[in-house]
Design a protein that fits this description.
The complex is a heterodimer of chains A (457) and B (456). Chain A is mainly α. In chain A, 71% of the residues lie in helices and 3% in strands. Chain A has 18 helices and 2 strands. Chain B is globular. The N terminus of chain B is likely disordered. Classes of the chains: A mainly alpha (457), B mainly alpha (456). β2 of chain A pairs antiparallel with β4 of chain B.
Chain lengths: 457, 456
């Protein structure tokens, strides 16, 4: 059942803009801790650039390890924004309103973080320009457009551009609101970003149309990004990677982890900014329902991927599957994936009283992402070890302290950027909340008063 | 009458009493067209049964190619008749208000589940053992016959239970208004239903649970069918996306079938007050989305196979798409992807009666072509125990009996649904009525707007 918050009009605006004006002590504590981790991250990057990729656990033939796992993971998290914002906007789900901004912002920051990792992974990032972009026309040296490593940047940059436009379109009315309520450098910034917004009928109509169009246009990009990332693996002939299900399997896994991350973020925002009136139990309830469906779909794909790898009866596939299912550490990781990403959270989310418990939702959503990170690692690594017949070089991967620092640093980076964003822009869309309040109605059904809403066009 | 962009449905001007009276009238009155439909369907059913006996059954079990069109019609009915109730489940879970008249149109097809079930058990006798070849069952005792039979029986039983639970409140209305005889059909079916708060709570929860169970069973059964009848029959073919493609395209066919049924009910079934633009608009958006998904799942498989250029994978491409069944595949991609994309991308087409109906008919034809293609692929590989797929078979063409049994069994399914409509109100009386309570017209600033209650 829909719930209502008690505030109206100006009170909502004031409450939602509070993070921009007040800074609780915990904010500074978080900034200091994250700053420390980011310093270590920067040091690890510098160390790796100076000494080379030998400082990582990568070797021949295991050329992809923690960094690529992390890249795939953050690309997955970036799917939260479109899933929550675009799809729920198109389907006119009323409960989307307080959630969309955080999801969209997380999309952009996680995409930026994801993009960092292939660059770092090259060891010499300044040379990547030669591999991706055409250069030196006289000598006729061109990157191979048939290679998925060239498709990747195209897809990711398109998604980043689309997501940024999408976020910006929804930010404009709030920028105007802030422009009219701020002074100094903030006023200058918001004036520029508000693009002369006055909130007249024509502007609202354009904003609405732009939002819907971008929602529809970004959907194919959303699907293509993780599909193309999956094809980095699947178009190769490495056992267990060469699977046709990889594209939708990666996409649904991304939605699973991304939407779970939105729950984590919502709970943190509720505690940090005191948004109890906006990020209500009903929102956790609705996302929990959505996640039950998404997680079950993901589990179906996961099981199909395992079954059809064994279906072939190809000795190379079988030996890698045996390694993945029965050998240390992959057997433990598999159990980890099952338990953390499905067996614990989904049965919990089946019950409304748990879906409405913020602490439980926070911890289960966190568990999903731990499980999903492990799943990416479990998918990528075993095939590369080449522990099958007639290979003359096989190896073992153990991540170095540099890689561990990079992975933890990436989490710190995204969190730091989100905190920074919340100090400059409203983390919940004020205009969307106000629109929701204006659309809220009550109707009488028999003796009962039922919350209702005006149907959007 | 229109309001801020929406056409206000005519059903809103009706009272619950009028909706109940309309539903009972539809059950009671048998038009001449309805009778003609029943007769044609019965004749087709007989033709189908005779063709099955005269064709494949008499030609023997040994040649699997003989069973191609029995398999094809089984596939087609599973993809349409069995998939349509899933639409009803999905719409209920999504809680869209426009769904109310559509739900029964989709779930009434569960009545015809017996037809694919019969074909399935006929085909079970022709199914080779799963030992010594790639199979989903990996040497389980009794596989594939025992386990897939259990799944099929469960699906059919669950489908009928779903339809019954959904229709029970309507049976009670009909018991009270059409046939008050305590030993009559409606009284027996309605049981002790009085519409108490507790009964409604149990009904709503039961409908959700059994619906979700049906959906999961459908996905599981279709995964098994796709593996047993197609993937496991082509040596070396191990496409993990194929069961997903199979299920998603079945959902697409289920939506198309619901649109076509709605259009027929509007034209001939007196349901024009219930199945209005809102319903066609909503369904056509879903059909467009599933058309795009069709392409995505097909492309995801194609690019992996095409890119690898392994010799046996090139043979799959030649067999599936390019050489052997090229023209069928062209029909499939044209009708299942291009027609929804090029037709339904325009809002004025989506928001009409004829546009979605024409596209839905094309999609059904496309799915039929796809199932014939896949049944032919699964039935015509000679050595299913070979380790790799090295020889591409030639095209399998249908005979007269193949065509007759295909038309006949589709006619039988339609006939069963027509008979079911004699006893079950389509659209649902209780679901449309309950929607009335939750919708109001209100003044909002200068506009007249639609307000929708959200009790859940």
């Amino acid at each position: 059942m829909q719930e209502r918050h008690p505030l109206k009009g100006e009170a909502i605006t004031k409450e939602l803009l509070r993070p921009l004006n007040q800074t609780p002590m915990i904010f500074w504590v978080a900034v200091i801790i994250l700053g420390g981790i980011l310093t270590a991250f920067a040091f690890a990057v510098g160390w790796m650039f100076y000494w080379g990729l030998g400082t990582t656990g990568l070797n021949t033939p295991i050329f992809w390890g923690f960094m690529i796992t992390n890249f795939v993971f953050w690309i997955g998290i970036s799917h939260a924004g479109v899933m929550i914002s675009a799809i729920l906007r198109l389907t006119q789900a009323e409960w989307r309103r307080p959630v969309t901004r955080a999801a969209e912002v997380m999309t952009i920051f996680s995409l930026l973080t994801a993009m960092l990792f292939p660059f770092l992974h090259t060891g010499r990032p300044w040379r990547t320009v030669y591999w991706v972009f055409p250069y030196d026309f006289d000598r006729g040296i061109w990157p191979d457009p048939r290679g998925p490593l060239v498709w990747d940047p195209a897809a990711v940059f398109t998604y980043l551009t689309g997501s940024t436009l999408f976020l910006y379109t929804t930010l404009i009315p709030d920028m105007a609101l802030l422009r009219d309520r701020s002074t100094g450098w903030r006023k200058t910034l918001y004036t520029i970003l508000a693009l002369g917004w006055r909130g007249n009928e024509r502007q609202w109509k354009l904003q609405l149309v732009a939002g819907i169009l971008l929602s529809a246009l970004i959907l194919p990009v959303f699907v293509s990004v993780h599909s193309i990332v999956s094809w980095d693996f699947a178009v190769s002939l490495i056992p267990v990677w060469h699977a046709s299900i990889f594209a939708p399997y990666f996409v649904i896994g991304a939605v699973h982890s991304g939407v779970s991350a939105v729950i984590t973020l919502m709970a943190l925002m509720r505690w940090l900014f005191g948004f109890h009136n906006y990020l209500r139990e009903e929102h956790f309830d609705s996302i929990g329902r959505l996640l039950v469906v998404v997680a079950t779909g993901w589990m179906w794909f996961f099981v199909l991927d395992i079954i059809f790898a064994m279906f072939t009866r190809d000795p190379r596939e079988l030996v890698v599957m045996e390694q993945r299912i029965f050998e240390w550490p992959y057997a433990m990781l598999l159990a980890f994936v099952f338990v953390f990403a499905y067996i614990i959270p989904v049965p919990v989310w089946m019950f409304q009283r748990f879906r409405r418990n913020i602490k439980i939702m926070f911890w289960t959503s966190l568990m999903v992402n731990v499980g999903m990170w492990a799943e990416r690692y479990w998918l990528i690594l075993p095939g590369l070890e080449r522990k099958f017949e007639f290979t003359f070089m096989w190896s073992w991967y153990r991540p170095s302290i540099v890689e561990l620092t990079l992975v933890f640093g990436s989490f710190a980076l995204v969190t730091f950027l989100l905190l920074l964003f919340s100090k400059i822009f409203p983390p919940v869309a004020v205009w969307e909340e106000m629109e929701g309040v204006n659309f809220a109605q009550d109707i009488q059904v028999g003796k009962r008063t039922v919350h209702a809403t005006i149907r959007e066009e | 009458m229109s309001s801020h962009g929406h056409i206000v449905p005519r059903v809103w001007s009706l009272s619950p009493r009028e909706i109940a009276a309309d539903g009972t009238r539809r059950i009671g009155e048998l038009g001449s067209l309805y009778r003609l439909g029943i007769i044609v369907a019965a004749v087709l059913a007989v033709v189908g049964i005779v063709s099955l006996i005269a064709g494949p059954l008499l030609q023997g079990y040994s040649d699997r190619a003989v069973w191609t069109y029995v398999t094809a019609v089984f596939f087609f009915l599973m993809s349409t008749v069995a998939a349509a109730p899933c639409l009803s489940v999905g719409l209920r879970l999504a809680r869209g208000h426009w769904r109310r008249p559509v739900n029964r149109v989709a779930e009434i097809w569960a009545a015809a589940l017996i037809v694919p079930a019969i074909l399935f058990f006929v085909l079970q006798g022709t199914h080779p053992s799963s030992m010594d070849r790639s199979s989903l069952w990996m040497g389980w005792p009794g596989a594939p016959w025992l386990w897939s039979s259990i799944m099929m029986i469960s699906l059919v039983a669950c489908g009928y239970a779903f339809l019954y639970i959904s229709a029970r409140p309507d049976f009670a209305i009909l018991r009270d208004q059409v046939d008050p005889n305590p030993k009559g059909f409606f009284a027996r079916m309605a049981g002790d239903w009085r519409g108490t708060i507790k009964q409604w709570a149990v009904h709503d929860r039961g409908l959700s649970y059994i619906g979700v169970f049906y959906l999961m069973l459908f996905v599981g059964t279709m995964t098994v069918i796709s593996s047993d009848f197609i993937i496991g029959m082509v040596p070396g073919y191990h496409s993990s996306i194929f069961p997903v493609y199979w299920v998603v395209t079945s959902f697409q066919a289920g939506i198309a079938l619901t649109i076509v049924t709605s259009a027929i009910l509007r034209k001939f079934g007196g349901a024009e007050k219930y199945l209005e633009l809102d319903q066609f608009w909503g369904l056509s958006k879903m059909l467009l989305a599933f058309g795009l998904l069709w392409f995505y799942f097909w492309w995801s498989e194609f690019i992996i196979t095409w890119y690898s250029r392994m010799p046996y994978e090139v043979n799959f491409l030649r067999f599936f798409f390019f050489d052997t069944y090229l023209w069928l595949f062209v029909i499939v991609i044209g009708f299942c992807f291009l027609a929804p994309l090029l037709g339904l991308m325009w809002n004025f087409v989506r928001r009409s009666y004829n546009g979605p109906t024409v596209v839905a008919v094309l999609v059904l034809l496309g799915i039929m072509a796809d199932r014939i293609r896949l049944a032919s692929i699964g039935s015509t590989v000679e050595d299913i125990y070979a380790p790799y797929f090295l020889e591409v078979p030639s095209t399998h063409y249908p005979g007269v009996f193949d065509v007759l049994l295909t038309v006949g069994f589709i006619g039988a399914a339609v006939g069963i649904v027509l008979v079911a409509m004699r006893f079950i109100a389509v659209p649902s009386i209780w679901e449309v009525t309950s929607g009335l309570w939750l919708r109001k017209m209100r003044k909002f600033k200068k506009a007249e707007v639609i307000v929708i209650g959200k009790p859940e």
